[in-house]
Amino acid sequence: MKQVSIYELRDNLATYLQTLEKYSTPIVVRRYDRPIAVIMPYKQGNIFGDVEALFGFLGPKGESGKQSVNRIRRSILEKKRTQELRHKR
Amino acid sequence: MIKVFVDTDIIIDFSKEKNEILRKLLEKQRQGSLELFVNPVVVAEFFTDRKLKAKIPFEQAKLLFRAFSFVDITKEAGLLAAVYLREEHANFLGDALIGATCVLDGLHLATRNKRHYQRITDLVFYPLRARS
Asked: CATH number for the B2-131 domain, one of 2.70.70.10, 3.40.50.80, 3.40.50.1010, 1.20.120.140?
């Protein structure tokens, strides 16, 4: 896998992208000798397609999103806590 | 390009096949007409689900969140959220932090819980149709 510093990449971006497209090899981008990103060749479905295929991955059973958020974020205890914060000081 | 903040309920609905809202949003993002955002409140709430203790669903959930850009909760967002809570524009910390993030970063909020944000007057909602 090819590795490149951000400065090298900045100065030769077009060349690196051409190489990546030609050889389909990911490029690791490094900053101060630490890898911070990978540039991957684009393939149909390799980012958005995979994500869209996750529809229903937790199964259809159980609460709806609205019910879950009301339980987690908007419980009676949480409401009480906010009221206490408003009035106690 | 419209920047859309996606509330937790919509992501949960997607993961449980409850409706097609997020599918449509992802499609629009793929076409380049909008960009989807979440913040740490949404991540924390989504990953609270006990089913995500298992490795495979956990990895799938992480993959799902790759579709979103992340917006941090800054000091300014904290201060604005405090105003919303103090002035009773919001009753819950999560709602206040999400509302403040959206207002400060110019994000349209996509949520099925509009009622809880309605007193945050500067907030812009992204129009949703559950069945479309």
From this structure: 3.40.50.1010
For testing contact with chain B, the best of A43, A50, A57 (most B CBs within 10 A)? A57
Q: How far apart are CA A65 and CA B114, in angstroms?
A: 13
Longest dimension (CA), chain A: 65
pTM assigned to the model: 0.82
Judged by a CB distance cut-off of 8 A, whether residue B95 touches chain A is yes
Q: Please give the C-alpha separations between residue B83 and each of A76, A81, A86, B22, B38, in angstroms, as whole numbers.
A: 21, 16, 11, 30, 21
Answer whether B102's CB lies under 8 Å from B109's CB.
yes
Encode pLDDT of B50-73 as tens digits.
Answer: 999 999 999 999 999 989 999 999
Which is nearest to B44 in space by CA: B10, B116, B94?
B94
